[in-house]
Amino acid sequence: MTNSLKIAMASLAPAGRSVQSEMLGRGARSDAGRASSFLALRARMLASPCLAGALQFMQVTTRPWEPHELAAWLLEHVVAPGWMRAPRALREPGVETLELSGIDGRHREVAALTARARERVALALLDFVAPNPDGDFLRAALYSARVRWSVVDGRSTWLPAPREMDRLSDVVLSLFAAEILSDAELYRSHMTVCAGCGRVAFTQETRPLSAGCPRCDGEVRWRAR
Ligand SMILES: [Zn+2]
What we know:
The protein has 225 residues and is mostly helical. The protein is built from nine helices and seven strands; from the N terminus they run H-H-H-H-H-E-E-H-H-E-E-H-H-E-E-E. It binds zinc ion.
């Protein structure tokens, strides 16, 4: 196991007793601490191409996606940043595999493929915010090398490294994994996921302002309880 992989795996371990007792005893981090980590998260939302791509996928696929939208998303958020070359085909278990060059006009099939991918990504993110997460998607991204450790602008960080044969959901999850591994505590503290529709949002408060999802009124889940 490489050193970077060891460090990443250690960061996935459950919080130590001191951290847990602090969270239980005081409800959560201090308001000032949460405000500053939320600011750091906002900065990442503006600066991180992986986070932008991952969030856009989850935001826009709440409705059926058109073929040109999927092709544009791949080009802008996966191919252009250099995470991988354009795949020949797009796949997801249980739905038809589609040749990228032939997706024009395949409206129903593209909608089915992106919906299935979104469902799997949402399940992985719901696990990440669960009280006792399995951490499977982060482990899978690490062990299957869908993320790589690199130095960008003098700072070590994780970058997505999906492969052309990967499922579309694994491509999206590689963006989330690189981002979360780069600062897992930030996401543990602020990320919320809707159990109904998979909406991903971030909250500065120790709990979301509303118990119901603003989009579907489903149950909003988050880690910092
Ligand atoms: Zn929802």
